[in-house]
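One chain given next:
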Amino acid sequence: MEELTNEIRLTNAYPITDEVGSNLKPFRFKLTNTCGVGVDYNINLEVMEIENRIAAKNIAVKVDGNAKSILSNNPEATPTYQESDYTAVESYTTYSGSIKPYESVEHEVRIWLDESAGNDSQNGKFYSKVVIEARQNQVVGQNFAEIAKLGDYVEMTPTSTSYTISSSLTGYSSDQSINPSELNLWRIIKINEDGTLEMVSEYVSSNVVYFYGLIGYKNYIGALNTIAKQYENGKYTNGSRYTGYYNGQTEYLNAFCTSDPTCTEPNGGDDEPAKSVDSELINEILGNRVAYVVGTNIAANYWYGRRHFYWGNSSYQVYSGITIDIEGDFLKLSDKTRLYNTRNGEFSNSNYLRPIIILKANVLYQSGNGSLENPYSISVNE
């Protein structure tokens, strides 16, 4: 506990109203949890033994903006303060709270002689100590959603160690392979009311994935969502999606290309009709969209789950994927994203992968504090 003001003593006090008492200078202090587990705590006001001591029934106490209470009406606690200067003879719990790992809270305590105090309290003395009683609350087996915070790091290894991406999904000339289990460090970007947590991979895959031509463009959203599903682990997850396409659509053809199966209809639109909020979530929670190749410190371009259609005129249209570049910005009309244009035909392009997974609501805390150096480890009841 860090004391931010001097202690409070009442000497030669006289009764005052609650309005006046609530505006007295408070005793301010700061509590910091330096451990990797959460704590519950009580703010106890311990009464010191002195001559002519004012009875606790005459003392008003106010913690922060909470309602005033009479000290003796608060729950009794066991006195603990015993030093050469004073010894506590009574103790009352005036407030209870909790602090998550490595967080701090500040409190203000005001005491005064209550306006209901009788004449026997005149010219009395009241010395007290604020004593913090704390205990660990984050224990192995606790529901993880209760302690998780946005931006926390979580270890979770996908089940699959190898997945073959069929050329029929991407339009590329050959099948491609990835190792989903290599992406095992995640960041929490959304905490849902049902207790599930949505997490984006901290890193991107070590292999790029190619898309090619009109087939790659048509299948782009569905293929990325199909790939993202390989990063699940049925023990811990109950869903996934590829970063960018927020409504979970997995069809290879979406509403952007319905009347013309080759996706050459002039739409005149700029982007997909179904907008995504993943980019905003990641940018807000993590501070930017930049991601590094797993196992390296190399920033990389990665596919983003929205397509881009550019209508130049009746004879020139461009069909592209969208990429997040090494600065965390969007690339749309770029040599690194285009898959087809009506003048030059089909193109292939490759970028890295950054999936999103959804943790089950019954996942439990195992260890860690959610930092990069000590990410959370999770478990489930077998």
Observations:
- Residues 246-275 have pLDDT under 50 and may be disordered.
